[in-house]
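S.,

Sequence below, as promised.
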Amino acid sequence: MGLQIYNTLAGKKEPFVPLREGEVRMYVCGVTVYDSSHIGHARSLLTFDVVYRYLKFLGYRVFFVRNFTDVDDKIIERAHQENTTAEVIAKRYIAEYQGDSQALGLFPPTQEPKATEHIAEIIALIRRLEEKGMAYRVGGDVFFAVGRFDGYGKLSRKKIEELAAGARVEVDERKRSPMDFALWKASKAGEPSWESPWGPGRPGWHVECSAMSTKYLGQPFDIHGGGRDLIFPHHENEIAQSEAAAALPLARYWIHHELLQIQQRKMSKSLGNFYTVQEILARHEAAALRHYFLGSHYRSPMDFSEQGLEEAEKGIERIYETIDRFRHSSPATNGAPQPDAALLEDFRREMDDDFNTPKAMALIFDEVRSLNRLIDEGEVSGLASRVSALKRAGEVLGLLQEQPESFLARKKERWMHQRGISPETIEELIRRRDRARKQQQWNEADRIRAELQEQGIMLEDTSGGTIWKVRP
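The prediction came back faster than expected:
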């Protein structure tokens, strides 16, 4: 059947057919860099990282652009609060954001453009709109004339008449219509500004994304993505100004993820009910946060739960432990085995259904249970290809980004540090147990196992030796 994507523009799932064979061009709205990234941002980042990874898995050459909004009212306000410049604020949080992205294990986009580095393109776009009679100047400001664009509302399914009556619009008596939005804003004292045909000023938010996306991807391009809260007005306005300027569609597929909530309320900086990415990663593995988000479909609302995140962390550990168990239980082989084709085909079938990560994850954990059962029974022959397929599926989802021994060693170190237990003490007890077993001192061997188990340390005897793991 092939990949099916729920297209917000169409209001239904559609077969994905790229504009150019073998190539996908995708734009996702990035963050406004005035504060630390929270885990609501992380859901967006991880959603589109999986889309990116899966498209590459399907064999596409993917051009992925994700921008930075580095000039905005909120950035300016933060700069005033700290008695510094908007540029300083933007640079600080771009650097922090990039660190968070690396810590989350994201594939880097092809391009990460900044709005302030594309003023020339923004001005050129606004001038085209003026020339076509789609924009008008009021003093040093320039507004888009919404009423002159016939397709306005086609993404959000909102009617201009209803919106103009007062729904979610900013009142400005200088505008010809309350629905018109700013393309260029005249400069104010203490704000960053650039020279333009309309005098010194700065761009409006919506026009920045249109200029950057079309510069790097052309028009039209394949996929435009973002959070559900961007459908209106941001994405609706992007469509209006871009299509009015070029007389071409902006993007064919529009992908929107649902928002993250805390206690049934949207997680946001304005409400103050958020955890930063750094706060969460100080307590949990990045793979656990990824697993937690992928356990829900990207179009389903989520209510954040610390308990759910802890369960997700146990799940990631279970996958790594299974791979490590197989490594210790099977004879060494030369070269990497080919992944099991049937398992990967099942994985692809689930992901082809609008990136259905919950079902893909369920498939992975079904396989984990099956592999553990066979390892318990000593039936490890022929499992190498299945383990290879398990690892490949985990890599596509971004869940498995390191060797099992590295992940498990770090988990053990964190656990031992929390409980004040040294690895040397554990290893010495295991050696004493091994000596007792060799001397057939079974009571002593059982006593040592029980002693370790009381401390949360579980032992498993394999053909490659005794391995240990921790259980909270």
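The radius of gyration is 27 Å.

Coffee later?
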